[in-house]
Specification:
Family: Belongs to the LysR transcriptional regulatory family.
CATH superfamily of the largest domain: Periplasmic binding protein-like II
Shape: globular
CATH architecture of the largest domain: 3-Layer(aba) Sandwich
Number of helices: 11
Radius of gyration: 23 Å
Strand content: 15-25%
Number of domains: 3
Order of helices and strands: HHHEEHEHEEEEHEHEHEHEEHH
Strand order of the largest sheet: 4-3-5-12-6
Number of strands: 12
GO molecular function, one term: sequence-specific DNA binding
Organism: Plasticicumulans acidivorans
InterPro entries: LysR-type_TF_proteobact-type (IPR058163), LysR_HTH_N (IPR000847), LysR_subst-bd (IPR005119), WH-like_DNA-bd_sf (IPR036388), WH_DNA-bd_sf (IPR036390)
Oligomer: single chain
Helix content: 40-55%
CATH topology of the largest domain: D-Maltodextrin-Binding Protein, domain 2
Pfam families: HTH_1, LysR_substrate
C-alpha cells in the first residue's frame, strides 16, 4: 500500500489554493523549487497527475479534484493535533506567532514585545504583519490583534483598547493651500488615501464624507507611505492617532467627532491555557492599558 507524506499533501493544497508555485511558496515560507519537487514526489507516489500547469497557473486535474476534499479533511485533523499538542505544552519557552497590522506592531507593540522577551528569554516571538487576516484555526498564527471583533468559531477573544483617529496635514501644505473647509467638503484640497478596499472602514467613511469635494493626490495600501506623503506635503489624510501624533503634523479641526476603533485579541480555544500564550496575552493587555493615552488621546 502506498503511503503519502502529509507534507507533500500540504504542498499540493497550497498550490491548488493559490494557483501558482510562487504564491504557494510564500504561504509556506519555502523556496519555489521546493514546491515543485514536493508536487513531483506526490504525483509519482500517486501514479497520477494532480495539477495541470496552464498559462493562467495550476488547475486541478480530475484526479486532483477527486482527492481535494479528502486532503482538506486531513489538514483539519492535522491542525487539531498540532493545537492539542501546543495546548498541552507547559513550558515558558518556545515560539509564538503573532499577527497584526504593521503600524501597530511598529509604533506601539514593539516596546511591549521587548519587555516581554526580557522577562521570558526562552520565548521567541514571530511577528506576521500582514494586510490579510491569518487563520488561527489553521495555525497560520497563534495570537491575533485586529481592529474588528473576531467572528470565527473556537476562538477566545478579548477587547484590549480603543484607537482614536484624526485628520492631518503638514504646515507647508497648509501654508500653500490654506485650512480645508470641511463643511464644504474640503473643496480645492488634495487627499492621501488608502486603497479602495479600505474606504469602507468607519474612519475612512467619516473622512470621505468630510472631504467629498477634494481631489486625490495618492492612494497606497501602506499607512506608513500615507504618513510619509502627508509629511511631504502631498495632501491631507485620516490617520490613527498613535501613528501621526508627534510626527510634526497639524491635526485639523473638523467640527465632528472622529470615530474610534476597537482593538481585539484572539487565540484559539485549544491553546488559550498554554503558559507562554497566557503570559503574552497578559503582557499585551497590560502594555496596551499603560499606552491608552497614545492609542486614544483625549482631545485638546
Amino acid at each position: 500500500m502506498k503511503r503519502f507524506d502529509w507534507d507533500d499533501l500540504r504542498y499540493f493544497l497550497a498550490i491548488a489554493r493559490h494557483g501558482t508555485l510562487s504564491g504557494a511558496a510564500r504561504t509556506l515560507a519555502v523556496q519555489q523549487s521546493t514546491m515543485s519537487r514536493r508536487l513531483d514526489s506526490l504525483e509519482q507516489r500517486a501514479g497520477a497527475q494532480l495539477l495541470q500547469k496552464t498559462p493562467d497557473g495550476y488547475v486541478l486535474t480530475v484526479a486532483g479534484e477527486a482527492i481535494l476534499a479528502h486532503v482538506e479533511r486531513i489538514e483539519v485533523e492535522a491542525q487539531a493535533v498540532e493545537r492539542t499538542i501546543t495546548g498541552a505544552d507547559l513550558r515558558l519557552e518556545g515560539s509564538i506567532r503573532i499577527t497584526t497590522i504593521e503600524t501597530l506592531a511598529v509604533e506601539v507593540l514593539t516596546p511591549v514585545f521587548a519587555e516581554f522577551c526580557s522577562r521570558y528569554p526562552g520565548i521567541t516571538l514571530e511577528m506576521l504583519a500582514e494586510q490579510r487576516s491569518l487563520s488561527l484555526n489553521k495555525r497560520e498564527a497563534d495570537v491575533a490583534l485586529r481592529l474588528a471583533r473576531f467572528t470565527q468559531q473556537d476562538l477566545v477573544v478579548r477587547k484590549l483598547a480603543e484607537l482614536g483617529f484624526g485628520i492631518y496635514a503638514s504646515s507647508e501644505y497648509l501654508e500653500q493651500h490654506g485650512q480645508p473647509d470641511f463643511t464644504a467638503g474640503a473643496a480645492g484640497h488634495r487627499l492621501v488615501l488608502p486603497h479602495e478596499e479600505a474606504m469602507g472602514l468607519p474612519e475612512m467613511a467619516w473622512f470621505g464624507d468630510l472631504s467629498r469635494r477634494a481631489g486625490v493626490a495618492l492612494r497606497s495600501n501602506s499607512r506608513f507611505a500615507c504618513l510619509a506623503a502627508v509629511q511631504a506635503g502631498m495632501g491631507i489624510a485620516c490617520l490613527a492617532r498613535y501613528l501621526a501624533d508627534g510626527k510634526g503634523l497639524v491635526r485639523l479641526k473638523t467640527g465632528r467627532v472622529a470615530p474610534k476603533r476597537e482593538l481585539w485579541l484572539a487565540v484559539h480555544a485549544d491553546i488559550r491555557h498554554t503558559p507562554r500564550i497566557r503570559a503574552l496575552n497578559e503582557a499585551l493587555a497590560e502594555g496596551l492599558r499603560t499606552r491608552s493615552a497614545c492609542l486614544n488621546p483625549i482631545d485638546d
